[in-house]
Each structure stands twice: as C-alpha cells, then as structure tokens.
Amino acid sequence: MPEPSTTETDQRIERVVDPAIEATAVPILEYGRAWMMAPQTAARAAEIGLDGPLGFWVNGRAGVLGEVDADVAAAAIGFMAPDLVGRFWRHRPDDLTPMTCASRYAEAAAVWGRTALADVDPDQLETLADLANRVAESALPSTGVLFAGWRNLPQPVDPAGRVTVALNVLRELRGGAHLAAVHAVGLGPHRAVLAAPDPVRGGVAGAERFGWPAPHPAADVDRRVEAEHRTTVACRHAYAALDDAELATFTRLVLAVRAAID
User: Taking the model in full, what pTM does it have?
Assistant: First the structure.
C-alpha cells in the first residue's frame, strides 16, 4: 500500500486529527481534575502524610522523576511557581519515596474511577483505554518528561481504573507539550495561567493558588491561543496513529466518560 502524500497527510490533520485533539483536550483535563480534587483523593493524601490535594498533585505527578532536586520537579510541572513546588516536594515524609507517591497517585485515580464510571459499559471503557494507550505509545517521550514517566507506570487491570490512568497519561502528554508551547510564544507559565479561560485554574485566583505572587503581569489571551494551537501541533504525531474511525470512537468515548462524572 503506498504511503500517503504530504498533501493527503496535511488534509487528514486538518480534517480529522486536529479536531479530535481539540475536542478531547478540555474533557481529558477536566476528567483528571475531578479525581485529583476529589475528597477521597485528599483523604488518601492525608493517610500517607502529604499536604492535601496539591501536595499529592506535586508528589504524585512528579514522583515519576525519582529522587531529584525540587527545581527539577518544578521544571517538569512548570505551571506551579517553583517556590510552592519546592515546599510540597521537600515536605514529603522521609519514608515516602517519589516513585511510591506516583504509584499511590495512580492507585487513587483508579479507585476514584471505579466509582465514577460504575454505570459505564466496561467494554466501552476497555476500548477507550486501548485507544488512549495507542496514542501514548505512539508519542515521542520528548513531548513531556512527566508524560514519559507516567507512560511507564503499570496500569490497573480493571476497565475503569485502567481508563482513568490511561487518560491521565494523555493529560500529561498535552501538559508537557503545552509547557514548551507557552515558552515558545514568549508567554511563560505565570502569564499562561493568568490568561487561562478556565475559572478554576486561570486568572489571578488560579495564579495565586499555584503560588505566583502579585504583582501579576497582564494576561495575554492572544499568545495563549497561539500556545494552545502549538500544543495541538506538538501532539499530532501521537494522535495520527489512530485511523479516522478510531479517532471518532476515541472522541465519542472521551466525551462519554466526561459526561458520566457530572
């Protein structure tokens, strides 16, 4: 079978690949936020000695880096101010390794998913997990260091737990690409947070919650839009591994699991 021409590839990206990435980006983000901010996740953080949901967020996400300096964790996370990352990273209990934090975070995601998706067809969840994992397996590890680390974590065997962890891997894929994009457009993480349209993680409240102190620079929405586009471009190579029908199925199922948690 002949390879598709450059024109055919470009047309497919414009017609199918980019729309699928853009249609699922926010639902994947919101699905991840739901389990990260869930009361049971906060309770699990307290059980293992971490400082609330954000302490678990820092150590659980960046735990895949292993025993690194706080600045390295801050560099990978990007959108939280380095001082705040350092506070959470250094206040981890001595007997709790970073990789253990990452494993516990994945376990918390799976536990939450089993309840949140209890009414969703397990076969549909397996299909979504398979498609999400194919996207992840097709992505270059350089797209994001936390993505590369989370891709290597073992996934649960049950459909709901597996799909929740698999979607978090894709969340980290876009997150890594987005961090590079905001720097590429001259925005930087502080101003990127300020310009985010999401009221939960954007604006002054979002910036200060993530440790960025006043005075705050002006939000630059135009550069934020350009950064989002560049983020999509950076993820194309991974999503293009799915054919048109698979991308349609992936989009439909991502929207379905997002709707299931409302």
Answer: 0.95
